[in-house]
């Protein structure tokens, strides 16, 4: 007998395909070349002579956003590319009235396996939602409007964009509908809380729009979302209920509509997606759909992941900072499934499923990061155990913070308080992220030195947690401000929000110093030291 490989047949088993790919059978495959290039970039980046240089700094009075090598200013009116050696303007649109303010945006990239109707569809584009309920698709490189869809009139205000399935199905959610004070005083009840509209992307096609009604889902509804084909309804007191959205769509959709076609809906004639009619609400839920799952969690915090499927919750308010990891199948608590860092800190620890799709869990606190994994319990195949994969520990002095100290004169001094785990004078973890193309964990750690905070970005091996490289961030880090740090291939970008709507952006790019440059740098340092000793200040360009 000869297997499918020996007999010339294509292997049908997934394990065989993965094994052949690992041994280089598909060397001409684009994915293989991309992985090889990213492996080379990772090796270069982790070399000792490779540095990250602050190439650009700017400040703004409006929020700054970053998406895939593009920095957006002035409510997405100005776009700057961060890929070149120095950031350059891609486009800058004229100022627009407040009515055209962009509420939310998503970056759209074309699928590799599909043929699209227009050549422009193969280039990245930006989906934006305006204050007047317009959905626009803009060219990511020029800002040109490629498509324009009117969503609805004054009956609802759409505010949020999200993915149901990333880069495939988009969800547009309205703000919560609220009656005017005069209507509430008159006793008028508002039963429709939210509107949701769904689109298939590239090409953009309308799937349907539905209402979330208190008469169907209950008076305690506080929020709603759709993710991975699941309708998620959040209630007060932390209750979370899940429903199968595909089943809802199939049962309650009254009619399908295509964008740009004339329709007659409730006595009105209009064009789908055009002003003033917008989109019809064609999914009418008339009774409560079958419940898939429900659970109660503090502040509706609920995550699903792992293999087999598990979820993470904090059961009650008194359990704040304690996380329970349970089986989605039967709600059974996993062995060692209660994770509690017992942090004494101003900011709480946080936990989430690892973005690398390995099924692992990242649990991060001020001085400790745990990467946890699932493994089968011996002699019990129905239960999973939470085990530690590796830990990353903050670099702190190993001094024992004793509550009692004795002075040189022999006087005994008792401390009335203990240091917090996130004490600013000790190295504290602030951000943990994952760079998928380089397979690296990035960790931002901050230490208060005198009046200023100093931060550094560390790269750790995603498999074992080994520290591979550390990059100092030159700007001061104030822990009371809001910070975002993006690590994207050979780019590090730090966005800082200060009081009174002041925003700063710091861009770092990878540079490889040659032996001559390093020698020159050391000579410059020696010159600076000698000049300082002579009483003069000297700076080399």
TrEMBL record:
InterPro entries: DCAF17. It holds the Pfam family DCAF17. It comes from the Eukaryota. One of its GO terms (biological process) is protein ubiquitination. One of its GO terms (cellular component) is Cul4-RING E3 ubiquitin ligase complex. This is DCA17 factor. It comes from Crypturellus undulatus.
């Amino acid at each position: 007998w000869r297997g499918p490989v020996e007999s010339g047949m294509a292997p049908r088993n997934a394990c065989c395909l993965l094994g052949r790919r690992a041994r280089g059978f598909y060397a001409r495959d684009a994915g293989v070349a991309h992985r090889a290039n990213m492996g080379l970039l990772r090796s270069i980046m982790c070399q000792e002579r490779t540095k990250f240089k602050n190439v650009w700094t700017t400040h703004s009075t409006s929020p700054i956003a970053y998406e895939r090598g593009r920095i957006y200013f002035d409510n997405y009116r100005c776009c700057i590319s961060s890929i070149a050696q120095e950031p350059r303007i891609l486009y800058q649109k004229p100022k627009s009235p407040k009515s055209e303010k962009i509420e939310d945006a998503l970056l759209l990239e074309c699928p590799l396996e599909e043929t699209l109707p227009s050549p422009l569809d193969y280039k990245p584009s930006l989906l934006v939602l305006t204050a007047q309920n317009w959905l626009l698709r803009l060219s990511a490189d020029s800002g040109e409007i490629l498509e324009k869809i009117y969503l609805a009139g004054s009956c609802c205000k759409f505010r949020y964009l999200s993915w149901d399935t990333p880069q495939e199905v988009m969800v547009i959610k309205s703000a919560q509908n609220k009656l005017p004070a005069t209507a509430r005083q008159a006793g008028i009840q508002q039963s429709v809380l939210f509107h949701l509209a769904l689109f298939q992307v590239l090409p953009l096609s309308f799937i349907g729009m539905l209402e979330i009604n208190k008469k169907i889902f209950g008076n305690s509804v506080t929020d709603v979302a759709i993710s991975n084909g699941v309708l998620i309804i959040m209630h007060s007191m932390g209750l979370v209920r899940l429903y199968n959205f595909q089943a809802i769509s199939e049962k309650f959709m009254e009619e399908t509509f295509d964008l740009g076609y004339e329709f007659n809906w409730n006595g009105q004639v209009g064009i789908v997606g055009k002003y003033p009619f917008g989109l019809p609400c064609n999914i009418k839920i008339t009774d409560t759909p079958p419940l898939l799952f429900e659970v109660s969690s503090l502040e509706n915090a609920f995550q699903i992941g792992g293999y087999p499927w598990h979820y993470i919750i904090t059961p009650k308010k008194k359990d704040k900072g304690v996380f329970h990891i349970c089986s989605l199948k039967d709600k059974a608590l996993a062995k060692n499934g209660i994770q509690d860092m017992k942090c004494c800190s101003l900011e709480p620890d946080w936990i989430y499923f690892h973005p690398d799709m390995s099924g692992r869990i990242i649990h991060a606190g001020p001085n400790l990061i745990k990467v946890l994994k699932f493994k089968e319990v011996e002699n019990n195949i129905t239960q999973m155990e939470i085990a530690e994969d590796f830990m990353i520990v903050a670099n702190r002095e190993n001094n024992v913070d004793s509550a009692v100290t004795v002075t040189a004169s022999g006087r005994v001094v008792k401390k009335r308080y203990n240091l917090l785990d996130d004490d600013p004078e000790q190295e504290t973890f602030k951000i943990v992220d994952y760079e998928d193309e380089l397979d690296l964990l990035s960790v931002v750690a901050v230490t208060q030195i005198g009046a200023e905070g100093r931060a550094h970005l560390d790269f750790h091996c995603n498999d074992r947690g080994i520290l591979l490289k550390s990059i100092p961030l030159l700007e001061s880090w104030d822990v009371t401000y809001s910070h975002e740090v993006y690590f994207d291939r050979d780019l590090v970008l730090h966005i800082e929000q200060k009081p009174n709507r002041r925003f700063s952006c710091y861009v770092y790019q990878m540079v490889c110093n040659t032996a001559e440059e390093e020698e020159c740098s050391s000579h410059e340092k020696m010159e600076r030291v000698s000049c300082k000793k002579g009483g003069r200040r000297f700076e080399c360009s």
